[in-house]
Write a structure and sequence with these properties.
Largest sheet: 6 strands, parallel
Mean pLDDT: 94
Number of strands: 14
Bound molecules: iron/sulfur cluster
Low-confidence stretches: none
CATH class of the largest domain: Alpha Beta
CATH topology of the largest domain: Rossmann fold
Number of helices: 23
Distance between the termini: 48 Å
Shape: globular
């Protein structure tokens, strides 16, 4: 971007990005564009729209030069961590590198960003006029789809079990509505293309059903400010802001609209919603009946009902940073060498939940573990079950004792809050019931608990088909915790099962319940 601006070339070369790079470039320049999330990477590369592809180190396909070569694009690897075995042209004469990329269609590693930018811009301007960059026509797609023998090999390998044979039949007959819906569920793995015995380029055929619509996303904004934390610290820890929900990570899930639907539900309910990475992008890829995305419907504030795009996946640290700031600014806990107390505070008092709905790699799943370390429970999407690392409780059997730091005595609360630290949900509906439950903390005031239970019960009724959650009694400490609107129904249920009231814990902490060098006084503020 700097190179194009300094050389007055910005109206000749368009800069677009996929995944986190797109979020970073759009923070820097209002003319940069977002192509889409990680799940659109292969689709976009195979479309051949990019003249030059510049890669960084993460969330990039390992076969990038091969795929780019097939559509006549050129690749520049910009970091030594992922060079694809390409020749290092960092010290070469720029014109020689450009010549070889243009004439010999070579790809190179160029580790000097300024030189890489110059080469990329020059190569793009030279080869763009010679390249065919049109999308497949409907006639071409129809002809390709007609080759389908309905063998179903593609469906068997598709991680989302998409009905591709039927989609090919529809496309061959000119019916594009159903294939369009199917494409929204495609995570762009390319396995179907690989398996097809008829060699139908399925992802390329999908170009005819890919939406040409454009969407709006709020630019990534970076850290949550101290002033914002001062405003919301008290309502979050008392529970009157029912929770902070962070949607993070990649787009490996059953439907690209899942995240937008969840963001809308919780922003409307006055949770604080923060997003990063591909989750931030896909949240903007759905419009309501008035044509608005969640970024246009809700304010950008770190406050009740706000929808905040924090930035790329690297900005996940700003989300955990916000939890740390609550403990530091609001509760005056010291920052240095105090992780144990911080995590204890967050786990017992800050109603925050992470949702890593579509981790595409161990790296993305491990972001969730990073949140767990700080006491933030994380819900993972259905594909994340394969990472095989969950932190689950058996709510009726496990030990839910905490120290009441004010009374200096251990109390058996019997309350599974939060019930799990890492949990997989199969559907967005199940996630939307689990999210409010995992926002419940032992520190909630009666008013805060009633607000949280109100959302838990109403979402349970909305998505699980009526009735009351069967574990409701575990979260009701006293009658005042029951939300007003469900008082009558809940009282009947609690009486039925023999529920007994219990005292809320004044200052809940795990310090003092296990062997640690941290004194109990460290958590009292
Ligand atoms: S590219 Fe899409 S349709 Fe093909 S197998 Fe992968 S998810 Fe399924
Ligand atoms: S693998 Fe190819 S031929 Fe077989 S159903 Fe899929 S698209 Fe058709």
């Amino acid at each position: 971007i700097d190179y194009l601006q300094e050389n007055n070339l910005y109206d000749k070369v368009e800069v677009a990005g996929i995944c986190c790079t797109a979020l970073e470039t759009t923070r820097y320049s209002d003319r940069a564009k977002i192509v889409g999330p990680l799940s659109r990477q292969l689709f976009f590369i195979r479309s051949g729209i990019a003249d030059v592809i510049m890669t960084d180190e993460q969330c990039i396909r390992t076969d990038m030069p091969i795929e780019a070569g097939k559509v006549d694009s050129r690749v520049i690897a910009c970091l030594d961590k992922a060079m694809y075995g390409l020749e290092d042209a960092t010290e070469w004469d720029t014109e020689e590198t450009v010549k070889q990329m243009v004439e010999d269609k070579k790809h190179f590693a160029i580790l000097d960003p300024k030189k890489a930018a110059e080469v990329a811009a020059k190569v793009a301007m030279e080869i763009a006029p010679q390249r065919r960059k049109e999308w497949i026509t409907e006639e071409e797609a129809t002809e390709l789809a007609k080759k389908c023998t309905q063998c179903d090999m593609c469906e068997r390998v598709c991680p989302n079990l998409l009905g591709l044979g039927k989609a090919m039949k529809d496309i061959s007959e000119g019916n594009l509505d159903e294939p369009q819906k199917l494409f929204n569920k495609c995570i762009g793995c390319g396995k179907c293309d690989q398996e097809c015995p008829q060699h139908i380029p399925i992802l390329r055929v999908m170009q005819v059903v890919a939406s040409k619509e454009t969407w709006k996303i709020r630019a990534g904004r970076g850290p949550i400010m101290d002033t914002e934390i001062r405003n919301v610290g008290a309502p979050i820890t008392l529970g009157t802001i029912p929770g902070v929900i962070a949607f993070v990570g990649c787009s490996n899930y059953p439907d690209i609209e899942d995240v937008a639907d969840m963001v809308d539900e919780f922003a409307r309910r006055k949770y604080i919603v923060v997003l990063t990475g591909c989750a931030a992008m896909v949240a903007g890829m759905k419009k309501d009946k008035d044509g608005k995305t969640v970024y246009e419907k809700y304010p950008p504030d770190f406050d009740a009902g706000g929808v905040v795009n924090v930035g790329s996946c690297v900005s996940n640290a700003h989300i955990t940073g916000a939890a740390i700031k609550i403990a530091n600014i609001f509760a005056a806990l010291p920052l240095r060498a105090n992780y144990e107390v911080m995590a204890d505070y967050v786990l017992n008092r800050v109603g925050a939940v992470g949702v890593a709905w579509g981790a595409m790699s161990q790296k993305a799943a491990s972001i969730g573990t990073g949140c767990n370390r700080l006491g933030i429970p994380v819900i993972l999407g259905p594909h994340s079950a394969k990472y095989r690392r969950l932190y689950l409780s058996r709510k009726e059997e496990d030990d839910w004792r905490v120290m009441d730091a004010r009374k200096r005595e251990i109390v058996d609360t019997g309350e599974p809050s939060p019930e799990h630290l890492a949990y997989v949900c199969e559907t967005k509906e199940k996630a939307m019931v689990m999210i409010p439950k995992l926002c419940i903390r032992k520190n909630d005031t009666p008013q805060g608990r009633a607000i949280k239970l109100n959302h838990y019960i109403s979402l349970y009724k909305k998505y699980m088909g009526g009735g009351l959650p069967e574990d409701l009694h575990l979260f009701v400490r006293r009658d005042a915790d029951i939300p007003l609107v469900y008082k009558k129904e809940a009282r009947v249920y609690l009486k039925e099962i023999g529920w007994q009231p219990k005292e809320p814990v004044g200052l809940p902490t795990f310090i003092g319940t296990y062997s640690t060098k941290v004194p109990l006084d460290a958590v009292i503020h």
